[in-house]
Amino acid sequence: MSSNHTATATTDPFDESGAPTIPAVDDIDPRVHERRWMILGVLCLSLLIIVMDNTILNVAIPSLITDLGASNSEIQWIIDSYVLVFAGLLLTAGSLSDRFGRKGALQFGIVLFGLGSAAAALSDSATQLIATRAFMGIGGALIMPATLSILMNVFRDPTERGRAIAVWAGFSGLGVAIGPMTGGFLLEHFSWHSVFWVNLPLGITALVLGAFFVPTSRDPNQGKLDPVGALLSIVGLAGVLFGIIEGPADGWTHGTVVAGFVVGGVALAAFVYWELHTANPMLDMSVFRNARFSAASGTITLVFFAMFGSLFLMTQYWQLVHGYTPLEAGVRLLPQAVTMMIVAPASARLVERLGTKRVVSSGLVLMMIGVGLLSFIAPETPYVVVISFLVVMSIGMGMTMAPATESVMGSLPREKAGVGSAINDTTRQVGGALGVAIIGSAVSSVYRNRVSDSSAQFGLDAADDALAQTSLGAGQRVAAELGARSGEFLDSVNQSFVDAMSVGLRVSVVVIGLAAVMVWKFLPAQATDASGSAGRPGAVSAPGGAPMVVGTTTRAGAAYTTSGETAP
């Protein structure tokens, strides 16, 4: 069959830089191909800004309490207002980037994130900071899916794309690890405002480099906008996340928490129904029939559940049990970050030799071993022992996250890279939020019981007993006021927390084990590429592996129908 394909350039309404535009399906611009690794560097810098920002902020919490007089509830919402807006808008932002241009979405997101950071740095009340953090979430929702979707359109060769995604995943892990160290350094020399000002030079650098080097792309086969789907996805994700965030603090049966889950659940159910029946869906639900896509998405959700829950506990262990400052704790986590940076890019070559299923399964087993060993540590366990267990965990994470991400993205046509990236990012956010909430709640419950059991022997009154049960930090403050028995009670509350932490870490082990079973049962050993790189140039597989038309596509019901010339 003869081919009459032509490379049609797309336009980005935001792009006035003159940077080359990627043809949506056919051969890539040679100039883009030549500088693809430079483009990857710009994308990783953009990603690093938003990932690092979240962990930097955690370090500044004591300063915010002192300078702004923020309550515990306000501190929680300074952090969570960003997460709520960010995760709630991801699917919509990814869809809009596919339609209007991914480079424009990336750069507009960086501008919004920078403006929000400046406003946050200038805030003089907790209420203002909550509002500006929510505004930053809009920028973050545009940035994160755009980085991965642009990567998918720049790296056309499946092997090379797998390596690029591995580097992208490595930088994501790096941002989580270096955030506390950077924040600790800034707070030792400047005020809490500096953790927001630092975003500006990084953002300006990414903005300028992106204007010159990053090409744009968009979905050439656009139907009408899907405002109903966008609204339902925002309400659904925001409602569920609100319930997850508020559950540990207010109780899972509290009226507002239940309302959040009910509203979110109903909206998400309506979203699925609407997307299955509308002629122009924002998210084609048929992609979930693809075992590779669904298994990888489920794996990412479960892994981030376990990872965020575990890191949440280890942060408290370093700073409260061992008494490290944020900077000291950040420096001690560097081996974990370096390991992730080395292993994640190397995972792509392992996949080439062993296949996705074996590499991801092996990585999950290593994660189970690392987290399982962590569940046996004690308050006096030496640093070198703890970090060795964390390194084992990081090796497993590096082997898991990049191949799983590539499985999600490689299951979709390149034209839908924005939505695909948004799904990938949403699973991370929901999984991570659930991990912190559920594992944190389990740890709090065990900790309260342990402290309650030991309070009587120290003769605590009811008020001190209740205060000591609220958190490890509160228990340590109570211990400081006990005089001669202060040291004994301090050892007791530290041990109570470590015992509770062990329970939480073992929950993580079980969740990682479920992910390993899912991978082994459902993830194909060697998946075919659906993003347009297989076969002759321009061939694009539809979700599920069926050949998809190169040219015009429409959708009826849950299956693709095609018109034009099909790829062999």
Automatic annotation (TrEMBL):
<feature type="transmembrane region" description="Helical">
    <location>
        <begin position="77"/>
        <end position="97"/>
    </location>
</feature>
<dbReference type="GO" id="GO:0005886">
    <property type="term" value="C:plasma membrane"/>
</dbReference>
<feature type="transmembrane region" description="Helical">
    <location>
        <begin position="167"/>
        <end position="190"/>
    </location>
</feature>
<feature type="transmembrane region" description="Helical">
    <location>
        <begin position="134"/>
        <end position="155"/>
    </location>
</feature>
<feature type="transmembrane region" description="Helical">
    <location>
        <begin position="104"/>
        <end position="122"/>
    </location>
</feature>
<dbReference type="GO" id="GO:0022857">
    <property type="term" value="F:transmembrane transporter activity"/>
</dbReference>
<dbReference type="InterPro" id="IPR004638">
    <property type="entry name" value="EmrB-like"/>
</dbReference>
<feature type="domain" description="Major facilitator superfamily (MFS) profile">
    <location>
        <begin position="39"/>
        <end position="527"/>
    </location>
</feature>
<feature type="compositionally biased region" description="Polar residues">
    <location>
        <begin position="1"/>
        <end position="11"/>
    </location>
</feature>
<keyword id="KW-1133">Transmembrane helix</keyword>
<keyword id="KW-0812">Transmembrane</keyword>
<feature type="transmembrane region" description="Helical">
    <location>
        <begin position="228"/>
        <end position="245"/>
    </location>
</feature>
<feature type="region of interest" description="Disordered">
    <location>
        <begin position="1"/>
        <end position="22"/>
    </location>
</feature>
<feature type="transmembrane region" description="Helical">
    <location>
        <begin position="358"/>
        <end position="377"/>
    </location>
</feature>
<feature type="transmembrane region" description="Helical">
    <location>
        <begin position="251"/>
        <end position="274"/>
    </location>
</feature>
<feature type="transmembrane region" description="Helical">
    <location>
        <begin position="37"/>
        <end position="57"/>
    </location>
</feature>
<feature type="transmembrane region" description="Helical">
    <location>
        <begin position="196"/>
        <end position="216"/>
    </location>
</feature>
<dbReference type="Pfam" id="PF07690">
    <property type="entry name" value="MFS_1"/>
</dbReference>
<feature type="transmembrane region" description="Helical">
    <location>
        <begin position="295"/>
        <end position="313"/>
    </location>
</feature>
<keyword id="KW-0472">Membrane</keyword>
<protein>
    <submittedName>
        <fullName>Drug resistance transporter</fullName>
    </submittedName>
</protein>
<keyword id="KW-1003">Cell membrane</keyword>
<keyword id="KW-0813">Transport</keyword>
<dbReference type="InterPro" id="IPR036259">
    <property type="entry name" value="MFS_trans_sf"/>
</dbReference>
<dbReference type="InterPro" id="IPR020846">
    <property type="entry name" value="MFS_dom"/>
</dbReference>
<dbReference type="InterPro" id="IPR011701">
    <property type="entry name" value="MFS"/>
</dbReference>
<feature type="transmembrane region" description="Helical">
    <location>
        <begin position="383"/>
        <end position="404"/>
    </location>
</feature>
